[in-house]
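step=encode ok
step=design start
structure_in=
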């Protein structure tokens, strides 16, 4: 169904406005265009390739899309090549939560019917009726988006590394507790290169017990150790030769092969995390906001990059600090009905930023006297538990970060956490 494009140009001078909805999929996408009266102007089925993208842009241009007055687009994702194509120029692209889109669908059909063209029409109508209630994708710089890719990938690599390490630890408990005892003294345990080198050399208790001092020394040196080798060699040799319960020989050998397989995954995860961390350390200092963010106590390059990755550098994204705090899940939410009301933590939030905030607040307590005093007041005077106290501290420091980024100022301890004034009676 299509009317004449000239009758519904997307202009802001008193003529009809056009809204676009795209129901995306892996290989094809459905597109719908509606005007400000809700009339369906056009629908199109395009492929997920360069030809399909050209068809989409031609369709938008046919209905009045220009560089100065682009047609806004609603889609259920914020990533991918299609979104990258749409975000060129001044176009506003709205990433609609699929759950929200499903609620809008019920407004148009109580029969609960569903189709891809119908979903595209629903998305277009969301912009027509409620565009003011949805936030367009932020206009972040290319550098900020690149840092976001690296920081999120590094965080995923760290989580994956820990997951594989936990699997390996669980396996070792079944047949090789001597290894866990030997590596328990080292920070990061199984993720240490010394531990991985020794496990590769001796994946079973029988092989570990037969290791000589020379073999252990060579393994530690291959892992990069230069000091304290002799003391560790004796400690490791004693741990490997301690009597423990053993699995049957055939079962032990099979478990050793499984350990080597998991060890390969762990080594790959450790390498990926280290390489991505290096990439973050090279990219993040190039951003103009890096100096301000790093001036805050408790933020190193990796954690600061994660914060920048989630808040971006579009200063118009959050009107005030309250919006940023709600987005991060740092501020509480109030639920009231009649005479009943409750104040609880937020469950709908940016989980990555919230996780970074937990680490940030935890580090700030020891890095900043003012942050530590604020945390202690929340615990002692307000009765907060540890997590609630840290969340309140994160909430306060987010507001300070918003202020510093907006006004281009570095963090100042005295301004952020002024010393409490003594009561007038005490001064007298």
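sequence_out=
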């Amino acid at each position: 169904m299509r009317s004449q494009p000239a009758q519904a140009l997307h202009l802001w001078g008193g003529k009809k406005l056009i809204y676009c909805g795209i129901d995306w999929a892996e290989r094809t996408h459905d597109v719908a265009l509606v005007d400000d009266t809700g009339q369906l102007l056009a629908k199109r089925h395009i492929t997920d390739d360069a030809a399909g993208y050209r068809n989409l842009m031609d369709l938008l241009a046919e209905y009045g899309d220009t560089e100065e007055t682009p047609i806004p687009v609603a889609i259920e994702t914020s990533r991918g090549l299609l979104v990258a194509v749409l975000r060129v120029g001044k176009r506003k692209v709205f990433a609609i939560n699929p759950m929200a889109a499903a609620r809008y669908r019920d407004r148009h059909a109580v029969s609960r019917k569903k189709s891809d063209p119908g979903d595209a029409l629903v998305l277009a109508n969301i912009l027509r009726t409620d565009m003011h209630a949805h936030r367009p994708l932020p206009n972040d710089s290319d550098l900020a988006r690149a840092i976001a890719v690296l920081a999120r990938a590094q965080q995923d690599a760290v989580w994956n590394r820990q997951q594989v390490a936990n699997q390996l630890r669980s396996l070792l408990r079944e047949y090789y507790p001597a290894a866990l005892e030997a590596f328990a003294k080292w920070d990061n345990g199984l993720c240490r290169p010394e531990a991985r080198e020794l496990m590769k050399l001796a994946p079973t208790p029988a092989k570990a017990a037969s290791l000589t001092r020379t073999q252990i020394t060579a393994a530690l040196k291959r892992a990069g150790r230069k000091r304290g080798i002799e003391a560790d060699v004796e400690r490791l040799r004693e741990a490997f030769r301690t009597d423990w319960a053993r699995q049957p020989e055939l079962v032990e050998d099979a478990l050793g092969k499984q350990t080597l397989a998991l060890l390969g995954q762990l080594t790959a995860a450790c390498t990926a995390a280290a390489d991505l961390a290096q990439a973050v350390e090279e990219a993040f200092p190039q951003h103009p906001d890096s100096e301000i963010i790093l001036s805050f106590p408790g933020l190193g390059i990796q954690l600061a990059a994660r914060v920048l990755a989630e808040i971006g550098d579009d200063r118009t994204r959050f009107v005030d600090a309250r919006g940023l705090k709600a987005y991060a899940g740092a501020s509480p939410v109030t639920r009231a009905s009649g005479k009943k009301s409750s104040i609880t933590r937020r469950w709908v939030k940016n989980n990555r930023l919230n996780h970074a905030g937990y680490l940030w607040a935890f580090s700030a307590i020891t890095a900043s006297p003012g942050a530590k005093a604020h945390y202690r007041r929340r615990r002692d005077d307000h009765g907060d538990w540890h997590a609630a106290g840290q969340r309140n501290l994160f909430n306060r420091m987010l507001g300070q970060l918003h202020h510093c980024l907006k006004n281009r100022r570095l963090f100042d301890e005295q301004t952020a956490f002024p010393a409490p004034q003594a009561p007038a009676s005490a001064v007298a």
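step=design ok
step=annotate ok -> The chain has three domains: 5-137, 146-282, 290-416.
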